[in-house]
Write a structure and sequence with these properties.
With 249 residues, the protein is α+β, with helices and mostly antiparallel strands. It has nine helices and ten strands.
Length: 249
Amino acid sequence: MSGHSKWSTIKRKKAAVDAKRSQVWTKLIKEIQVAAKMGGGDPDGNPRLRLATDRARAANVPKDNIQRAIDKGTGGGGESWEDVTYEGYAPAGVAIVVECTTDNRNRTVGEVRHIFDKHGGNMGNSGSVAWMFKKRGLINVLKASAAEDRLMELALENGAEDIRDDDEVWTVDTDPSSFMAVKDAIENAGVAIEHAEVDNIPDTRIEVTDDDTASSVLKLVGALEELDDVQNVYANFDIPDEVIDRVGG
């Protein structure tokens, strides 16, 4: 793997601000509930739940709220949730993958399609753009928290595939199956993790330098992320920082 997803970098930099929004807490709680319902309430035996609870703690979701979501998920009854993925294109041919968790497919696909249409994009068929992305586990460690040699030793011994320099952080790159083992090894060694997630990394990126086009792409992605049923949005755009600053992304 080389380079890093521009959208992932943007998400990481704004994570501290986003975590204060109640909508983010709502989505995290929903993911915990769904993960517990689908795979049981023990995080050690349910990797999806473990990742969801870790993300919730990082966003300062209260422990009681997390436990209530687990209890609700394992209690039986309630909503019938399912994971669905939608794909499409933003302006300039930017590929978009939208991961949702919903109890009503018709509602969700209608809302997602409306956002694509409103912001100059279009939805595609299943598989139309997903092949351009690969799931990767990414762990960001501030350079001040660990020397590269020490971090490399910890990560590679526990299944990581690469470590790279991403400005102010080291990025540890793993296969999703090794993500939790590598994350645990780093944390157990007393190294603070700044951000960790299983991301969807594009094989190629489309550079967008026109201000109007960049604004449309960012508005489309942002509007998708605002939808209640949307859990993750992945895109293969590469917008220079100065353009993002100009258009207010």
